[in-house]
Amino acid sequence: MGPMTSTQSNMPDALMALIVSEARQLIQGKTEKSFIIYGSGARGIVFYEALRLLGYNAAYFVDKAAKEGMTICGLPVYEPLKIMYENYNDIFVAIAAQSPTELITTLEGLGLEPEKHFGIIFDASLNDGIHMPTANELDFFLGYGRSSEIPGFQLLSSKTSDACNCNQSIKIITLGGSTTDPDVMDLFEWNDDALQKSSHGSWPRHFQKILSNFGIDACIYNGGIIGYSSAQELLKLWRDGLSISPDVVIVLDGFNDGLSFLSHKNHPKHHSHFAAIENVINPLLSHKTQCSDYHGIETVYEQISYGIESSKSRWQEWHENHRIMSAFCKEFGIEYLAFIQPFGWHDCNYLASCDVVFRINSFLHNFFISAGQTIKDQLNNGSLNLVSLLQHFVSNAFSCETDQSKHFSIHNFELVNFFSQARTISKSSDFIIPIEDTFYGYPDIYCDTVHCTSKGNQLLADRIYRELANRGIWHKLALHS
């Protein structure tokens, strides 16, 4: 699919038309019924406004128990159980939620049937989401990890899962966050047994298949862990890397480095998970527990130290981490390449490269998430104007390097700024390769705003293989084998 572009001038009208059109489609053939809106957040409020534009009204909202007693748009909010006292043939429930699965289960538990008694509004702007595994190990160096046969790594090999048999193969370490994590995948694929077996393992799984197809005998040690940034990758490589004796280290990152909340206070080398560890340890310190230090002398530890605070920017820390990893690998004769990952729906150029239908739905998705509080504030002030708000949102979405975008999503602004700086500074380092354009023109490769389906992971794996091939790395390794 080739890239398609357009201007922003007609986007608010297109968004408003889509909102009204979806509302009309949902209630088609049910206009004699009483409408109940399940979800009192941004989606529910926007659907209520769309109903009014179509000349209809809603009876009331339902939501979780904590919201019962509230009034939204002049309508009461009840617990979902209120629905059971209605005549089901006289009502239609519109589910207005980003994650509707639990709501569907609740309604089906009450005896309501899909399409006949309830439907999902704005379902085209939903994502399937991802299977998000737990990280069940406490790691005092990295913050957390996940138990596996090789601590912190999952082995991928075309021959065997036995690491002992990899000694004659090219050894590759892959590092990154959730987009590299071997246990993170498209929720739709995870719930399908056949798809789960074929696509489990993020992009390194597809990368290993490509290597096999080209006759390259390689063992991949996938060390990606959800939530890790370049700081954890650096520390993990330094602590564990030489024990594997890799020939190549490949890193795919950027997204997590652009999010300040993933660092512990002003200590970017420490993951924010250390706050949870601190909450466990601090009560012990408050009891002035005596411990033996390395000399065997009884002492009392009074606080936890994280070293010197950093005043450097996120992108400066990221670049320095990669410079250190590159120097580390060079010293030990290891090939090193880092890739600036695609950053999903936060990338204006990516959105502009896709067809208009995808752009409209992605904007609507971000609008519900990012403008939710603004919608509620304007509603409370009696000043809700959807057309004006959509215009403001679209303007910021297209010019997402402006401070104005912080009103909708501080993380969006952080990421856009980070990736812009990272692209610029990476030009001074030949071991860092921007590949954000890998997905340009492909509207169907994300299962949420940043994580990939198998198709996306295949595109990533193919791009990374070609970049290494273009640098002669496979040929170089073959000569030394």
Write a structural description.
- It is a single chain.
- The chain has 481 residues and is of the alpha/beta class.
- The protein has two domains: 11-125, Rossmann fold (3-Layer(aba) Sandwich); 130-342 and 435-480, Rossmann fold.
- 40% of the residues lie in helices and 16% in strands.
- The protein has helices at residues 11-27, 42-53, 101-109, 187-190, 193-199, 202-213, 230-244, 274-286, 314-331, 348-353, 356-370, 372-380, 386-398, 410-426, 454-470, 473-480; strands at 34-38, 58-62, 71-72, 75-78, 91-95, 118-120, 130-131, 137-139, 143-145, 154-157, 170-176, 185-186, 218-222, 248-253, 263-264, 267-271, 290-292, 298-300, 335-340, 432-434.
- The protein has a six-stranded mixed beta sheet, with helices on both faces. Strands 10-13-11-14-19-20 form a six-stranded mixed beta sheet, sandwiched between helices.
- A hairpin with a 2-residue loop joins strand 15 and strand 16.
- Helix 1 packs across helix 2 and helix 6 (202-213) crosses helix 15 (454-470).
- The two termini are 40 Å apart.
- Mean pLDDT is 82; it is low at 1-9 and 398-411.
CATH class bucket of the largest domain:
Alpha Beta
User: Strand order across the biggest sheet?
Assistant: 3-4-2-1-5-6
Radius of gyration (Å): 26 Å
Specify the CATH architecture of the largest domain.
3-Layer(aba) Sandwich
Question: What is the structural class?
Answer: alpha/beta
Estimate the helix proportion, in percent. 25-40%
Label the overall shape. Answer: globular
What does the average pLDDT come to?
82
Regions with pLDDT < 50 over 5+ consecutive residues?
1-9, 398-411
- Our estimate of the beta-strand percent is 15-25%
Q: Give me the oligomer status.
A: single chain
Distance between the termini: 40 Å
- Major beta-sheet overview: 6 strands, mixed
What is the total tally of β strands? 20
Overall tally of structural domains: 2
